[in-house]
Amino acid sequence: MARPRFKCEYQANEFASGLVGLLYIEENGYGPESSADLMHQYGSPVDKLD
Question: Which of 22, 26, 20 is nearest to 39 (CA)?
Fold first, then answer.
């Protein structure tokens, strides 16, 4: 069973992904075709963690 911390992080990531998708639609008038579209538009947090 996953530890509660990881479950909370997973839920937070899922929530944030939905918000970023909605923001993309609001700004562009259509949804992203892939996660690459979102990374190109907004960047990737992974780069900032290194």
Answer: 20
